[in-house]
Amino acid sequence: MADVSLHGIAKSYGSAEILRDINLSIDDGEFVVFVGPSGCGKSTLLRTIAGLENVSAGELRIGGKRVNEMPPAERKIAMVFQSYALYPHMSVYKNMAFGLKFAKTDKSEVDRRVRRAADILKLSALLDRKPRELSGGQRQRVAIGRAIVREPSVFLFDEPLSNLDAALRVNTRLEIAKLHRELGATMIYVTHDQVEAMTLASKIVVMNHGRIEQVGAPLDLYRNPRNLFVAGFIGSPRMNFIKGQVRSVAGHSATIGFAGAEAVLEVAPGRVKAGDEVTVGIRPEHMAQDGPQTIPLEGRIDAIERLGEASYVYMKLAGGEDVIVRSPGDADAAPGSGYIAHVPSRSVHIFDAQGQSMQASTRMP
Amino acid sequence: MRPLARPGRIAVHIALILYTILAVGPIALILINAFKTRRAIFSDPLGFPDARTFTTIGFDQVFAKSDFGLYFVNSLTVTVISLGLIILIGAMAAWALTEYRFRGNTIIALYMAIGIMVPIRLGSVSILRMMVDLNLVNTLTALILVYVAQGLPLAILILGEFIQQIPKDLRDAARCDGVSEYRIFGSIILPLITPAIATVAVFTMVPIWNDLWFPLILAPGDGKQTVTLGVQQFIGQYVTDWNAVLASLTLAIAPILVLYLFFSRYLVRGLTAGAVK
């Protein structure tokens, strides 16, 4: 068991900067998810922690020990790859035992660990099969099994579910969560799927362009995104963004005009002045809530997607912006007709011209 | 239209059949005529041996007049040792050149590629001088050294291509498992490139076995001749013992055929590798 800490980690290939000044501390037993669009450096960061890539600057510590110069095998980590990376010419058993063989582990101990891992992952009946005779989900479990038998302090997962079909993905996701509870080991998990991030993580690290945008608990990121990028990345369908302008400011509240409406909203003091251009962010699921203190937004419906439990209304607001509204499944609406979205004012996010949130970070939706 | 009857398909098959006849023809001629009397060889070269024309006099001549067993062992020694060295050194070099980034990597790779384009025979004179200086003339070692040099460039190219196709994750996974670089090469890379090794083996082995040039200039001495050189003694300036020539050629084909059949099982997989995931 071990904590992981990164101080000023940077990585560049020639003149291309892949990671810039990454500072992060991961507690023992935490489940941390790196999430971000492809090319944001999240996989490189994971490979850096694994020791498969050298860092250009900064210090990496695992269990309090500096590991910058250590080869992967000595870092007490185990990695699960997106492509599974099973040795194709070895049986499931040998795949799991392969690494232990060279760690001079006692033969009966190897056998015990492999059988225990196979038991946990329900692979016991498949131990003599070759990887090509397994389904995608089974291969993934073997890859996880290979990590378990090493009894690492830190598990590293590199997009482990992205090659699985949707149903299997949900199952395996649950299994990984269960595994984390049972083993209690530190886990670091890379994905571009924000649903995986929200469901698995005790802490999410949102990355973009080689930088950490925000770190926090899943719900914290959902409720208080620090900037436009995080706001747009976390949540599905993504948050609607509407151009707005500050009309007047009075202490903690500002009057902001957007989409033909005007609303008094709470802001962090001193951040805005009248006349500022701002971006107003509203999640689709907060746009069809009747009740007190709602802001009505008028528009026309372009299209409707009916999913059963909800209907996604694609509407064009009076100001010309396209937004998505998550309305009840039985919502009475038709393309071409008018529609009024009701937005509770406490669910409105405001970002300044630089894309930074203008609100104090202790709000509820 | 039935797919079998498509004109394009027919043309392809005709071309393939013609090529097969062209390729197999000479070998068939050698085999057929090796068992015929000299008179029958010339009067009816395409005819099969029958009761009247059948003879094994050629084989008797070969075994009586020459030390064929020795030639055979020489050829086999040179071919097998060269092949082994080419595959071992070639695979290791290919692994190093594709996997590790180091100063001079590209230069060395390029140098090897040039080796494919420049025929080694151009250097015959210098090679002979070098072998004389090294006291290696009339030894099998001289031949092995030359053949290893001749075979390495192509081996490195082909094996390098195959190694590159092995997913990088596999090597990374092994590194996370704490497997040493030598072990990764031996336990993961080598088993996965066996089809490529078979391909290289076939392409390298045949020219070595068939070579006449270097045995002639580097090891023509008694006791060191290879099969191809041994056959030459039956071809005279005025009289050629065709029975013996054809018989020794028949004997020379046999081992390479066996080796080919052994490797071809993998060869077919090698050529279609990547076609099916």
From TrEMBL, chain A:
The cross-references to InterPro entries, in alphabetical order and at most eight, read: AAA+_ATPase (IPR003593), ABC_transporter-like_ATP-bd (IPR003439), ABC_transporter-like_CS (IPR017871), ABC_transpr_MalK-like (IPR015855), ABC_transpr_MalK/UgpC-like (IPR047641), Mo/tungstate-bd_C_term_dom (IPR008995), NA-bd_OB-fold (IPR012340), OB_MalK-like (IPR040582)
Per the record, the gene is: ugpC
Q: Which family does it belong to?
A: Belongs to the ABC transporter superfamily.
The record lists the lineage as: Bacteria, Pseudomonadati, Pseudomonadota, Alphaproteobacteria, Hyphomicrobiales
Which one of the record's GO molecular function terms can you name? ATP binding
Broad class of where this protein is predominantly found: membrane
Is Cell membrane among this UniProt entry's keywords? yes
Q: Where in the cell is it found?
A: Cell inner membrane
Q: Does the keyword ATP-binding apply?
A: yes
- Please give the GO cellular component terms listed in this UniProt entry: ATP-binding cassette (ABC) transporter complex, substrate-binding subunit-containing; maltose transport complex
Ranges where the ABC transporter domain occurs:
4-234
Q: Which UniProt keywords apply?
A: ATP-binding, Cell inner membrane, Cell membrane, Membrane, Nucleotide-binding, Transport
Q: Name one Pfam family in it.
A: ABC_tran
- How is this protein positioned relative to the membrane? Peripheral membrane protein
Q: Report what the protein is called.
A: Sn-glycerol-3-phosphate ABC transporter ATP-binding protein UgpC
Automatic annotation (TrEMBL), chain B:
Annotated Gene Ontology cellular component terms: plasma membrane
**Subcellular location as annotated:** Cell inner membrane; Cell membrane
Gene3D superfamilies assigned to the protein according to its UniProt record, in alphabetical order: MetI-like (1.10.3720.10)
Keyword Protein biosynthesis applies: no
Q: Which residues form a coiled coil?
A: none
The membrane-topology field of this record reads:
Multi-pass membrane protein
A Pfam family that this protein carries is BPD_transp_1
Enumerate the transmembrane spans: 12-35, 68-96, 108-128, 140-163, 184-209, 244-263
Name any Gene Ontology BP term: transmembrane transport
Q: Does the keyword Nucleotide-binding apply?
A: no
Identify the domain of life.
Answer: Bacteria
Query: How the protein assembles, per its UniProt entry?
Result: The complex is composed of two ATP-binding proteins (UgpC), two transmembrane proteins (UgpA and UgpE) and a solute-binding protein (UgpB).
The record describes the protein's role as:
Part of the ABC transporter complex UgpBAEC involved in sn-glycerol-3-phosphate (G3P) import. Probably responsible for the translocation of the substrate across the membrane.
Name recorded for this polypeptide:
sn-glycerol-3-phosphate transport system permease protein UgpE
- The protein's gene is named ugpE
